[in-house]
């Protein structure tokens, strides 16, 4: 059979309305249409070609990136693209670039932490890209520990200026994207010092390079930190190093939305939580969760198409060999990843809503949901990026030897994606933040304060700590309420056990240090519960299209039961389910795999592209 026939055969098996499924994936018909239109725009424009980038030298790759960024900007202006269309265009251009940081962190930081006047002064220039900014927080010595940053911003009351200085080698800013070559300005985080007193880390806008000749300004030492993991990949970004030698900036270049320094040098803390200084990270973590499903779906799409076309073993009487997609082992490795892509998509949609909600609350001086939003963004960023990075590597293996070729797209996807486990907060460090929030919640359980939102289930901990799962047959595992209760019981029990064990230590900090692994696992259980519960909420919505809801229900069950299988130790050890019930879950999972269907519309095109890329990549 030819590739085209396999294609037709697999399409025939797709028992759902593919067009409607695309709309579910995009979030709305309008979002789908925008995405489709912009994808075509990018694909048909030769400036945006990306088939050769793993073969370019760093210098040529960087030039190529600048060309694409300038062209993208030109198209955005010419076509008067909306904000949503422009961000889709950047997404499909698909090459890490300084503008990610300009639009994604520099501007949001000014919007979130600057006062009205500062926003009016800086944002119009930034929107027109008359200035280009980066987000310079991390230093050589400290990334995770933000309070350990060493760069100083000392107020000089005589001149009404701050003096920005890098007092040690370890205080050098290290990593900021866009800093190495391009940015004219940086949003730097430095210790605020007034009258000899240290007020902790705050944000300051500093000009780095001349707007006339782009040379570094006096007192500024700046450069690129060098090659990163993989060919192509993240090397299109100019991650940089930056040092200050007593650089003077005006007082109003400190972002004054959270705290202020008066003309007299008096430090004033507004009545907003100081954690709002970390607000840009919360914003980007939320975006990263939304993006995880995109990276994951790309990898799964490549591995699925390959698995349909690839045949290996099992030929009888000269007939065709077995499609590797039909091997149960291939299915048990691939389908949970497909299901995860949908799970992350839906939880990403919900997180976007949560973020919009907290933004509106903050504007009305309601800070009550901030700790929960921090825990959700940190936890979901950690769990979805770790799972996606692992999944991309699994997809590479699912494609056998071909997955290791650059032309499969998977090595570059992995190399670009894997730092997501580190940037915007190391994933383990972020899980420990979630654990802190959970321990606080458990400690307040008897206080009369009712847990709400994603921790509402803790309010039912009396029941969850002693409930017994009622599954007797494999099909009982198809009931969403059975799955939900098992995940709630596991999360509640793991958190409560950690909280009890913490009491065995002389002080909380010592306990946290010793029990960090258990705490991180409890955090994962809580975050997986959030993902499972948001998938269930999605399925409770009206979902049109023949067979679409049914297919999503299958994917939900695959997602939840494959997690249960993977973490069976947690579920059984905490007494939520018995080993027998675990075995029944696995039996149900096996049955579900034969019900997963997929559409494969451009399989032939994919094969042709693969061959073209192979020819190019071998012509060195
Ligand atoms: C680019 C954008 C566009 C699209 C996105 C898509 C892809 C991204 C593409 C590329 C990425 C490119 C750039 C990457 C940039 C960066 O990496 S920027 C640097 C990011 N750095 C970090 O994330 C550092 C991680 N560390 C921290 O966040 C903190 O130091 C900490 C680990 C949270 C510890 O904080 P702290 O020292 O204050 O200690 P605690 O005592 O633990 O916390 C005190 C209380 O504050 C609460 N808290 C902490 N953080 C927050 C927050 N962000 N919001 C709200 N509340 C917060 C914490 O829970 C404590 O609360 P308490 O227990 O009640 O007291
Ligand atoms: C591609 C890329 C782009 C980046 N872009 C930017 C940018 O634009 N701007 C910017 O400011 N920064 C940027 N960063 C920096 C990034 O935010 C930091 O690297 C990240 O926050 C992790 O900090 P670190 O490097 O200090 O890691 P470390 O904290 O040194 O982590 C090393 C190890 O220690 C562990 N660890 C650390 N603390 C604890 C703890 N308390 N408990 C248990 N384990 C712990 C971690 O889990 C990890 O395994 C970027 C980084 C990368 C890789």
From TrEMBL:
GO cellular component, one term: peroxisome
Cofactor: FAD
Flavoprotein among keywords: yes
Coiled coil residues, start to end: none
Keyword Oxidoreductase: yes
TM helices/strands, residue ranges: none
Cited SUPFAM superfamilies: Acyl-CoA dehydrogenase C-terminal domain-like, Acyl-CoA dehydrogenase NM domain-like
Compartments, as annotated in UniProt: Peroxisome
Annotated ranges, domain Acyl-CoA oxidase C-terminal: 480-596
Pfam families associated with the record: ACOX, ACOX_C_alpha1, Acyl-CoA_ox_N
Domain Acyl-CoA oxidase C-alpha1: 278-439
InterPro entries: ACOX_C_alpha1 (IPR055060), Acyl-CoA_ox_N (IPR029320), Acyl-CoA_Oxase/DH_mid-dom_sf (IPR046373), Acyl-CoA_oxidase (IPR012258), Acyl-CoA_oxidase_C (IPR002655), AcylCo_DH-like_C (IPR036250), AcylCoA_DH/ox_N_sf (IPR037069), AcylCoA_DH/oxidase_NM_dom_sf (IPR009100)
Binding locations of FAD: 138, 177
Residues covered by the Acyl-coenzyme A oxidase N-terminal domain: 17-132
Sequence similarity: Belongs to the acyl-CoA oxidase family.
Name by which UniProt lists this protein: Acyl-coenzyme A oxidase
